[in-house]
Amino acid sequence: METTRLPSIISNPQSNIRHSVIWLHGLGASGNDFSPIVPELGVQEEFGVRFVFPNAPQIPVTINNGMVMPAWYDISEMDLMRRADADGIAESSKVITEMINDEIEAGVPASNIILAGFSQGGVIALEAGLRFPQPLAGVMALSTYMPLADQFPNADTSGNGGVSIFYGHGEYDPVIPIAQAEAAQQFLNTAGYQTDYKRYPMEHSVCPEEIGDIKNWLLSVFS
Predict the structure, then answer these.
(1) Which of 112, 148, 195, 202 sits CB 3.0–4.6 Å from 207 for a disulfide?
(2) Is residue 3 assigned to a domain?
(3) Does any domain span residue 88?
């Protein structure tokens, strides 16, 4: 996977850009997946938020018979915690780190940038966000897990040890069982990170209640 910028869906405010949200989609999806949610969040104009929805690279995915599709890293078996594609995760995290730096170079301070992701995208959001050397505004992890948790820095040695983390997950998720979210939450707490963890009566998706909670979290982070 080449370390280059990714084609992205970008939604700019009419006002001056003061904040940025980089939002990563899940396996087989695209940057268009979450862009329709922007108006529902109600923060774009008030806080001058640029939303960036990058498209993952097209790569073969082992668990899908090697089919080429948008993916942040390879998945080799149904048990997502086994044989994690550490190299692929690292490569995608590097690309997203470069995108954060692009926002900073464009004039948005790191402390005004949120990194968000759903499913596979959430893995990368946590990986890149908690390892970023400058404090970010927040990290949003939706319906995701932490396959490389044992390699994460503790909060006291992370550049983002005090970052605000929103973690939402469906209680009936058949793709990433709720137990994996609970394990990630326990790790983050034990490592010293502060998370706003919420469960919802849904499967591997988002729901109106979660969108409302995301809106409230964004308001609290940007205010």
Answers:
(1) 202
(2) no
(3) yes
- Give the residue with greater pLDDT, 150 vs 62: 62
pLDDT of residue 154: 87
The answer to whether residue 136 sits within a structural domain is yes
Catalytic, 119? Answer: yes
Q: Which of 11, 204, 205, 213 is catalytic?
A: 204
Domain residues for the domain of 103 are: 8-222
3-class SS of residue 163: coil
Tell me if the pTM is above 0.90: yes
Asked if 205 is an active-site residue, the reply is no
Cα 195 from Cα 114, distance rounded (Å):
14
Beta-strand ranges (E) seen in the chain are 8-11, 19-24, 49-54, 58-61, 67-70, 113-118, 138-142, 164-170, 195-200
Averaged confidence pLDDT in the chain: 94
Tens digit of pLDDT for each residue in 176-212? Answer: 999 999 999 999 999 999 999 999 999 999 999 999 9
Considering only the C-alpha atoms of the chain, give the largest distance between any 2 of them, rounded to a whole number of Å.
46
Domain count for the chain, please give it: 1
* Cα(122)–Cα(126) distance, integer angstroms: 6
**Positive or negative torsion for Cα 4, 9, 23, 81:** negative
For the stretch 32-48, pLDDT in tens is 999 999 999 999 999 99
Is 150 annotated in the active site? no
Catalytic residue among 92, 93, 119, 164: 119
Question: Of the residues 33, 74, 85, 173, which is catalytic?
Answer: 173
- The CATH number linked to 45 is 3.40.50.1820
